[in-house]
Amino acid sequence: xxxxxxxxxxxxxxxxxxxxxxxxxxxxxxxxxxxxxxxxxxxxxxxxxxxxxxxxxxxxxxxxxxxxxxxxxxxxxxxxxxxxxxxxxxxxxxxxxxxxxxxxxxxxxxxxxxxxxxxxxxxxxxxxxxxxxxxxxxxxxxxxxxxxxxxxxxxxxxxxxxxxxxxxxxxxxxxxxxxxxxxxxxxxxxxxxxxxxxxxxxxxxxxxxxxxxxxxxxxxxxxxxxxxxxxxxxxxxxxxxxxxxxxxxxxxxxxxxxxxxxxxxxxxxxxxxxxxxxxxxxxxxxx
Length: 287
Description:
alpha+beta
């Protein structure tokens, strides 16, 4: 019996979704353009954030600045951190091969004021750059009032040396778009991340994927119109995918009217590549 994951998207949030979609687009364009640092990645990178002293009444009213540089080893970070803190107290971050990171800048309110502003820097992490961008979008959604401008990505760190291989495949299942990302870690572990969205304006989508904990158990992800999801699949050799569309009913009514039967697919991992054997569809209606 499949378990259910609800990913509802309420109509009152369409404006917020539009804003987040714009932010995703901005971040994606920056990630492929000016945000890429020209220096090659070593295994480690230093980022320090501090406030520039310009004579304002309080330190928290000053704008922030950053220092960054590649490091030869993890041990060098502690020495660099001590020198940085001695020069100007602030926060430091070590970027390494374990995860990707985005360093971004944004305008916000000075602490305790609604009429004074500062330019701030921050860092967000993810298993890869896609997940780091997703984490940043979620941060904007959670702290929307604090972001007076869209976050500008000033440095991108992919987590150099993390993956043995990395492959992405995009599939469309009757209006449900799913992007699969497969990565082999240096530890030898292989994972697949599925990121999808229901593009229908009126139909609810049901996506069935194997459980991340037990591949013999399926999870059903319900996506109301416009909703999206990110899901980790814990299998390395292949997995089935099933998608169906149902007429959207009020959230308090669990009735499936006008069911379009499962669109089926089989994703297979071969030699570091992700291959699709479908999709194929069986149609039917139940009222």
